[in-house]
Amino acid sequence: MFAVDPTSIEASCIGGNIAMNAGGKKAVLWGTALDNLASWRMVTPDAEWLGGGRIGHNPGKIHDAEMASFELRYFAADGKTPLRTERLDIPGQKFRKEGLGKDVTDKFLSGLPGVQKEGTDGLITSARWIVHRMPEHTRTVCLEFFGHAKDAVPSIVEIKDYMFEEQKRSGVLLAGLEHLDDRYLKAVGYATKSKKGNGGLPKMVLVGDIVGIQQSARSLGRQAAHQGAGDSLCEQKAARRPANQDCARFAGY
Questions:
Q1: What pLDDT shows up at residue 75?
Q2: Closest to 129 in 3D by CA, of 73, 74, 57
């Protein structure tokens, strides 16, 4: 499983994913581009080649590592003549702002070249990635909120708290969580799936992937029901994609 899954996946490129530190709904479980990046190669504004690589990858989310180390090797314009080598040792917690996850305001990112710089310090040409084994059992749950959009916010917090406890109890994981507001729903011609809204368009939709047993997906739906959500469950791989095709470009299906 390639973890980086941004909403622009149909148009984005590998270099762009690194330059933006792209994430997507799979970032809940596997992190953003930075967390899954093993090495990359780029051209600097000084017409030098730079090969960057992670030393001793976790492999996992970078903020879980006590220290994240990178080797930076610079070459002349021919791409072969060595110029210099640098090493960056950065505490893992420096890459995440507590309570926010990815911090889009930190473009410097502890001086790490290329990543999250939006292309301002070089052109990324290639990369190597950490990939993950896809869990054997996945359930997708779709929660539709028909009241006020703000009613979905407590559910997002409750779902994350519930799944954290469920992970400790039975090993079930929340592999992805994506929200779509009514503007996106209108843009993609979303078709309401539950009966709660009497066919009307929801104010917000949450789409979540649960890696584990069916009962946990059912429980997640009940967890959000009192916040005004209708829920539907897609259990088989063949059924999950058609059930979510309305929001494919935004939810990553």
A1: 98
A2: 57
